[in-house]
Design brief:
- With 415 residues, this protein is of the alpha/beta class.
- It has one domain: Alpha-Beta Barrel (TIM Barrel), CATH 3.20.20.
- Strands 4-6-8-9-12 form a 5-stranded parallel β-sheet. A 3-stranded parallel β-sheet has the order 1-2-3.
- The protein binds L-rhamnitol and zinc ion.
- L-rhamnitol binds next to loops.
């Protein structure tokens, strides 16, 4: 008997069908963020990364051109089991030599190469307007700026992105999740908290007034608690974005698990939002002490988030996207590790005897519930995971580093 066969028997005895779990997992798309490959730099500017976000580290081999980024992403994709969707930022437009369009003038054609890339690999595309790293971020503000001209520039950017998002959906045949996040806020105590929020609200409404097909474009608003240099006040706070989404038909709330106070958990917020919203979106990251965007690992809260999605029957209602950027380690490995970790978390969730555990809770069998939940933690998930990777034609946990290293020696270190 192989390790997989023996593990399968053990799960059987718990009433878990691991074949069904692997099959289900293989069909659920997870969005892979292009920005891990180049430290959120993009191709449309030479300036610094702004918006209160930061990458730290200077690992060699960073992708500097669209070709390099696509090549690196291909390498990373070859190390990830499961179904992938591509997540792009507007700042990753690919211009022809001599061509340039500012953010308010972006057109679908500037993303043609990404569409080809995604289609050739059977991926859908998600999209993010880029409201940072640009000279028109004035005094740290974009959509909530008191300067009408600045606001209009960014509103036009948002509208351009809606048109591009619809183009992505039409070209790939997969709905495009378009996420609005700005780093707007203040370093120190504001004198007016409501003004910027009223302007932000109006600006997003104007963006969403751009006509689009709701079955093709899924707009979302992402909240944040604070950013670097934006510690005292964030315009798009949790209450602001959640209320916006709740009161604007077709707009989804997006929760990034790095964007809350450290003792709040997104795993608990997922089932709360699913009571009200038909669909929600997530940015999956690993915050250490702040929104540090470390590589996602197979840790407790990551597992808990996956569990909630699965046991709320939310796999088709929750758009899952990775969002982290570590510049201190091999970026391909960072990409792959984070994606694999989220796949593992989903697999663990799909291999959990939820019905049995829920029954124990409803019968107030809390002592036994604790005992069984602890026992489930040590079920032989690793053997199911290795089998899943094998069936997907992807290296297992002990093989994938060798491929990372080879690519590093052959390609990255020669840049
Ligand atoms: C920043 C937000 C946002 C960005 C990306 C690059 O704190 O999480 O989602 O990480 O848009
Ligand atoms: Zn995010």
């Amino acid at each position: 008997m192989t390790r997989f066969e023996s593990a399968k028997e053990i799960y059987d005895s718990w009433g878990v069908d691991v074949e069904a779990a692997m099959e289900k997992l293989a069909g659920i798309p997870v969005s892979l963020h292009c920005w891990q490959g180049d430290d959120v730099t993009g191709f449309d500017h030479d300036g610094p990364l702004t918006g209160g976000i930061q990458t730290t580290g200077n690992y060699p081999g960073k992708a500097k051109t669209p070709e390099q980024l696509m090549q690196d992403m291909d390498q990373a994709l070859s190390l990830m089991p499961g179904k992938k969707k591509l997540n792009l930022h507007a700042s990753y437009a690919v211009f022809e030599p001599g061509e340039f369009a500012d953010r308010d003038r972006l057109e679908p054609k500037h993303y043609r190469k990404w569409v080809d890339f995604a289609r050739e690999r059977g991926m859908g595309i998600d999209f993010n307007p880029t409201f940072f790293s640009h000279p028109k971020v004035k005094d740290g503000l974009t959509l909530s700026s008191p300067d009408r001209e600045i606001r209009d520039f960014w509103i036009n950017h948002g509208k351009a992105c809606i048109r591009i998002a619809q183009y992505f959906a039409e070209e790939t045949g997969v709905p495009c999740v378009m996420n609005i996040w700005t780093g707007d806020g203040f370093k120190d105590i504001p004198a007016d908290r409501m003004g910027p929020r009223m302007r932000y609200r109006d600006s997003i409404e104007q963006i969403l007034s751009e006509p689009f097909d709701r079955s093709k474009v899924k707009p979302c608003v992402e909240s944040k608690v604070f950013g670097i240099g934006v510690e005292a006040y964030t315009t798009g706070s949790a209450e602001f974005t959640l209320s916006f989404a709740a009161t604007h038909e077709g707009c989804l709330p997006l929760m990034d698990n790095g964007h809350y106070h450290p003792t709040e958990t997104v795993s608990d917020k997922i089932p709360a939002l699913l009571c009200f919203f038909p669909e929600i979106a997530l940015h999956i990251t690993r915050p250490i002490r702040w929104d540090s965007d470390h590589v996602v690992l197979f840790d407790d809260e990551t597992r808990e988030m996956a569990k909630e999605i699965v046991r709320c029957d939310g796999l088709e209602r929750v758009y899952m996207a990775l969002d982290y950027f570590d510049a201190s380690i091999n970026r391909i490995s960072a990409w792959a590790m984070g994606f694999r970790s989220w796949q593992k978390a989903l697999l663990a969730a799909l291999c959990t005897p939820d019905e049995r555990l829920k029954r124990l809770q409803d019968e107030a069998g809390f002592t036994r519930l604790m005992v069984e939940q602890e026992a489930v933690k040590l079920l032989p998930l690793g053997d199911i995971w290795e089998e899943y990777c094998k069936r997907q034609g992807i290296p297992g946990d002990r093989e994938f580093f060798a491929e990372v290293k080879e690519y590093e020696d052959e390609v990255l270190l020669k840049r």
